[in-house]
Amino acid sequence: MKTIIEPFRIKAVEPIRMTTAAERREKLRGAHYNLFLLHSRDVMIDLLTDSGTGAMSAAQWAAMMQGDESYAGSPSYYRFHEAVHHLMPFRHIIPTHQGRAAEAILFSLLGGKGRHIPSNTHFDTTRGNIEATGARAHDLLIAEGRDPAADHPFKGNMDIARLREFMAEHGDNVPCVMLTITNNAGGGQPVSLENIRAVAEIAHEFGKPFFIDGCRFAENAWFIKQREPGQQGRSIGAIVRDCFSVADGMTMSAKKDAFANIGGWLALNDDALAERARARLIQTEGFPTYGGLAGRDLEAIAQGLHEIIDEDYLRYRIRSNEYLIERLDALGIPTVRPAGGHAVFIDARAWLPHIAPLQYPGQALACALYEMGGIRSCEIGTVMFGRQPDGTEQPAMMDLVRLAMPRRTYTQSHVDYVIEVFAELARIKNDLRGYEITHEPEMMRHFTCHFRPLE
Ligand SMILES: *Cc1c(COP(=O)(O)O)cnc(C)c1O
Question: What is the pTM of this model?
Answer without folding.
Answer: 0.95
